[in-house]
Design goal:
mainly alpha; 10 helices; 64% helix; 0% strand; elongated
């Protein structure tokens, strides 16, 4: 029987808090709460955006572009899969893609919120016409940099893996609001959703998930994601 991996903080109460927080925030914004705060922060940022800071923030915002982290994660997973002769390193990439695509597509379509710079009467409201809520940039950053840290674990020490996981999302929390690409509540919702999906992915025991008899017969289902790289590499060269 496959057992879920422990995560920190342990237990399911953090997951319940993340879900409750996301639902409560979404219902509050739908009812009109926090809209004045969103607009005030946007106007302040828009009025305090000198050109040099704009380009610095724009460079930081690139960390949230899905292609900038999704493709490297896929390439790393394929390299590790080839070295280990196992398909398992590709599993986190595939599951992360499905999770983020399904959840973000559904939520953005339902809330239908425009971005701050939209030329509409009230772009801060749900139903204004857009795909701003929740922040897909931040959700994707939390999920995909987490996947990348997992795949790079054989090469990176723990401190560097933590930096990969935390650094880019932290930058995006600031730059996405400062540049006016997202409202503050978009960012908070994206943070809550990203942390929830990240906990789901970290619970999955990638090296123990059954992959069927065919892959088992070829040996391409061998443990590969959470195993040290050096012993495996050495095993191919006795």
């Amino acid at each position: 029987m496959v057992r879920l991996r422990p995560v920190r903080p342990a237990g399911w109460w953090p997951d319940a808090l993340l879900v409750a927080g996301f639902v409560a925030l979404t219902l509050a914004v739908a009812a009109g709460a926090f809209l004045g705060w969103d607009v005030s922060v946007y106007r302040w940022c828009d009025g305090h955006l000198p050109r040099p800071l704009y380009w610095v923030a724009r460079a930081g915002f690139l960390l949230g572009q899905s292609w900038l982290v999704t493709w490297p994660a896929l390439v790393v997973s394929l390299v590790v899969a080839w070295r280990r002769r196992s398909v398992r390193p590709v599993l986190p990439v595939a599951v992360a893609f499905v999770l983020t695509f399904v959840t973000l597509t559904a939520l953005k379509a339902w809330t239908d919120r425009a971005a701050p710079h939209a030329t509409l009467a009230h772009p801060e409201r749900f139903g204004s016409g857009g795909v701003s809520y929740p922040s897909g940039h931040l959700t994707n950053a939390i999920v995909w940099y987490g996947v990348l840290a997992l795949l790079l674990a054989p090469w990176l020490p723990a401190g560097w893996r933590l930096l990969v996981r935390v650094g880019p999302p932290a930058v995006l929390c600031v730059t996405s609001v400062y540049l006016g690409f997202h409202w503050v509540t978009d960012t908070v919702a994206g943070l809550l959703l990203g942390l929830l999906l990240d906990r789901v992915l970290r619970r999955i025991p990638w090296d123990e998930v059954p992959l069927g008899r065919r892959l088992h017969g070829t040996g391409w289902d061998r443990p590969a994601v959470e195993q040290p790289l050096e012993p495996v590499a050495a095993a191919h060269h006795p």
